[in-house]
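Bug: token stream looks shifted between consecutive jobs. Job 1:
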Amino acid sequence: MSNVETEPAEVTCASSPGGVEVLPPRDVPLGGPRAMRVRRTLPQKQRSLIGAWCFCDHYGPDDVSMDVAPHPHTGLQTVSWLFTGEIEHRDSHGVHAHVRPGELNLMTGGRGIAHSEVSTAASAVLHGVQLWLALPDAHRDAPRDFQHHVPAAVEVNGASVRVFLGSLAGSASPVATFTPVLGAEVVLPAGTELTLAVSESFEHGVLLDTGDVTVGGTALAPGELGYAGTGRPELALATREGARVVLLGGEPFGEEIVMWWNFVGRTHEEIAAYRDEWQAGTDRFGRVEGYDGGRLPAPPLPGGRLRPRGNPA
């Protein structure tokens, strides 16, 4: 999806005695006057990244249609994960694919890529998450790429776990990333208490999609993201009524990034140059074939300089 914000909003985050920080979502419209609305938990001024995860939009279930015209990306990988619905994907790498529930589509837009996203006629309801991974400096000019994977569900103490990136609970994804990360959907039946062995070098985020859940004893409301820092060998999840969560993790990124619109870079000047190239239609981003319509124009740059952002120490 296309990101319309230029700066992360100021949001009050709460920390629990158990060290789990609660990141509340903010409501963001996408796509103009008849905008599709999403709940955004990353980035925030208090926390820009969890591992390399730098963007998290959670949407639906809504009876809406999606029609996002071709738009550009740099310096990132996009991760599409649906719970309900179907989205048609076309990109300038020549890929024409569909995003379906339980199936991972990961697109690499290092030096530059463009893509479109359109919900299909079969999709009465859309419900899912759109995630971005920032590319480390050594790989942020990586060539265009697209990977698809259908992870099998594994049962862990009654819970269902689908690992779409990294490894967890004896399941590993073959999809390649440029930093060590974790991405998984976890479905917890009512009354479940689940302790997952995780990497102590990772920080983790737990996004509550539906139901109720506690993370290390800290309760989350639907749409909230619970952040747990490094040094934890286990992550404890519990639910009374049942829940579905998305678990994100990764080694702390260790680099500051500049995010604006659909670009990830390192300086204001770099972002401005990406914008100019997109507006000029250069070869950096290529062409999306088969989309019925024009490209999405870039918004104007903000009046002030775009500032690099990282995480608090």
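Job 2, same session, no restart:
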Amino acid sequence: MGRGADAEYRGVRRTPRARHVLVATALVCAAMAAVPQAAWADPAPPQRSLEDVRKEVESLYRKAEAATDAYNAADEQAKLQEKNASDLAGKAAAAEKRRQEIEDRIGELARSQYRTGGLAPSARLFLAASPEDFLASLDSTRRGQDATRRLLAETESVKEELDRYAKAADERWKRLKEERKKKEDAKKEIEARLDAAKKLESRLEATERERLKKLEEEKARQAQQQWLASDAVKGLSLKDSTGSATDAGRRAVEFATAQIGKNYVWGAVGPDTYDCSGLTSRAWATAGRPIPRTSQEQWQQLPRVEVKDMRPGDLIIYFSDASHVAMYIGDGTMVHAPRPGRQVTLAGAGSMPILGVVRPG
């Protein structure tokens, strides 16, 4: 900038009008700075769709059900370890009693030998009324000594047995402690998942909760229709209503369907509330065929059959982790205890992803 222009510029800044412009500009900037930052923040994110809520609620309940299976398994193992520990304690007590009896008999033999056979053979020969008496006394002493040796050997055997029982009992109590820890951890996870699901649902308006329920039902209907149209059910009789079931299978179906309307409660096996595997295990126990308690154990231990070959009374295992189970009752329908907040009910056998089918009978 030239000297003349610079002088002109300095001259403009000194004019009253220029000063007024500068003051006005400063006031505008100050006003903008005073506006709260929230007014310039990004707009709030859009509200989640009901479908997103449904997926999250379903995921939470699924995780709670998986934890319930872990809880039930730990509970069964804890009961088994308690029984084993109790049995070992009884055996140890019996062995200790036998040890005391043996020691008493050893003491009695020792006292008897002291009274009758404590002398050296030469002395007993000198004091004996006849050689025959001496030989009889000597034979009696030898028998007593043999009995004492046997009793001492038996004492050692009993002591070893007691040591084995003590070690086994320690191991059982250790396992029991571990299973109780697993059970408590699973309980905490269940309660956390259920609490999160309930809080999520509680934020919905009554009309939205009703829409959510209908959305769940619609998803189940769609899944059932797709399943019925799939190759998996080709050959399955959809008009079979316990006709091909065994007597035990019919009894199991009758029991399970008689529980319709009863509330789902995790860890419950009846008679007033059930979880999914609590319902199926109790139904088959009532039919005279006890089966494993959890859905995962039912999947692992019971004979498997093809979906197209299933008959009423068979158990349908759902999801890749085998965390849900229902009982097939025929006509493409199953009975099950769905989840917390629901009751034992009928549903399409294909309304959830099927892992496989097992047959208790």
